[in-house]
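User: My collaborator sent over this chain with a note saying "see what the structure looks like." That's all I know about it. Can you take a look?
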Amino acid sequence: MADKLIIVESPAKANTIKKFLGGSTKVIASQGHIRDLPKSKLGVDVNNNFEPEYINIRGKGDLIKSLKKEASSAKKVYLATDPDREGEAIAWHLAHILGIDENEKTRVTFNEITKGAVQEAIKKPRKIDMNLTDAQQARRILDRIVGYKISPVLWKKVRRGLSAGRVQSVAVKLIVDREEEIEHFIPEEYWNIYALLQDKKSKKTFEAKFYGKNNKKLELHNKEDVDKILEKISDAKYIIDEVKRGEKKRNPAPPFTTSTMQQEASRKLGFTLKKTMSVAQTLYEGVKIPEKGTVGLITYMRTDSTRISEVARAAAKVEILKNYGEEYYENRYYKTGKDAQDAHEAIRPTYVDINPENIKTSLTNDQYKLYKLIYNRFIASQMSTAIYDTLTVTINVNDYTFKANGQNLKFKGFMVLYVEGEDIVKEEENEKIPDLQENEEVIKKKIDTKQSFTEPPPRYTEASLVKALEEKGIGRPSTYSPTITTILERRYIEKIQKQLAPTDLGRVVNKLLIENFQDIINVEFTANMENEFDKIADGKEQWKKVIKEFYIPFEKTVEKVEKELEHVELHEEVSDVPCEKCGRMMVIKYGRYGKFLACPGYPECKNAKPFVETIDVPCPKCGAKVQVRKTKRRRNYYICENNPSSCDYISWNKPKKDEKWNPDEKVELEEKTTKKKTTRKTNTKATKKSSSRTKKKAE
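Assistant: Without extra context I'll predict from the sequence alone. Here is the result:
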């Protein structure tokens, strides 16, 4: 019989905790949720104050029996699920299953899986926090209501199996809106003039860029303007008007939150959000280290706080003084965002003395990369400011002004260890300018002009979408990864060279939702609901009241939309392709993988075939139609409809009107595809095993 029974969420976490607690303490795992709303129906009694109808999750019967058996024989049960709203709700469900009074002090939480943190938590159990539990219930129930009420509209008007989600649909909308912004973007021409100049004394050269006229900024939009300026300065002297010296400081970034870790791991390591969270989970739950056993290497990885403990701060100081010296240390505090829950510390190493390099052989390659990123970011956050010497030189050429900027890194500070992905300093940013004096003349060696065009905003990547969601107040640390993973799996969006683009299906679903549920599928509403959930977690709102205030107008909207759409058929786009079986003109439909052609005579005629998209620009080589196709990795390429019979035009780049054929752009797709197929076959077994292990750990 165990004196103490501790229930955690994952087996890996259980194994790590076991070694900290001797005697007759037993640690077992619930393996995530054990109760949830039923999948087969709404599971919420909207006529009985939104009472949820929780059931035991299918397949967990034996586990529940085992949990009950262990709990009944233990003198004391501790519920040590994850320290967030989801974990609090799992603890509440466990208490219900095991017959534990929710007012009993049985809940323990720890932000890091270390001996001290675990033992201290066991000494101070508390009651289950029903405010946190209710916040999770409110989110779960509201999302269930939205999904189960709106999804049938999609089934009737697009196809069965589709689903709508409160947060996911807003994420799709952001991606569709960005794609439309890109498509409607009209490039504007602009020019730059560059002068390569030489200092007479030192003979050193440097580059100056055209700024304007009489020291007032002037934009150049066409070649005529550029030629006029070149004519006026062709024989003019280049005189130094002003030399301005200064100093620029750069401070380190704060320790990681969930979103900043996801963004940086995407930029620096090329990790997807799902992979980042899966690897972080293993680092948090514990990794076997020689002479130390199983060790939780990082603090809890779902947080929106940049706060760190005084103990961790002191440990960072010791490491910095030992490895870099006193001039590299600075005790720093970071402000947490106004909407942050601040329930936990930032993501940091639990043992600062465990350097990534010293345990590299104990980690997988992915674990090592992410742990090093977290470790270095945390240490750098307590290091001193980087300092640059800056120099700005203003040069007069008749009435025109050129400027040259240079900077030199004088003191690296935190940059000796870590530079944020967006701020990596390029060599050209450190260009040195000679020691120039005002009123002296410099020699013109060369003048260059460059024509450019403004570019549309870039597509979202996983990292930039997380940043946008966070800035707009949509979702919370625990929701970013599953939100993006879900809309990718539903094929509402797709990845094209790491960028997120809407699929045809995503556009159709987005259009229908925006036209009919505009008050629900929008940024402001979704962000406001997150604030309501926060109020519930803080005990300032009742969860059923929040759901009721949402549901009454929502129900009327759904009824109105269903009535309006009852006799409305979506107009299917008719193609110019005749059905070879019955002669009808085939229509464009949307399936799981996008558009396809189908005979409108279904079910009498069941003919269907792939939809071939064409563009309104003729083939640059033969003048025939150009088709848009996709590689196996979903990248667009452009090919002549006569390829390969009479024309071999094929290109990664969309052809432009009046474009001349450049044979150097020809794409060898088959060769690349064959190589990738070979690689995939070789690694199939290893990939399946690795995927299975990662999934189990993440659960």
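A starting point for your reply to your collaborator: The chain has 17 helices and 27 strands.
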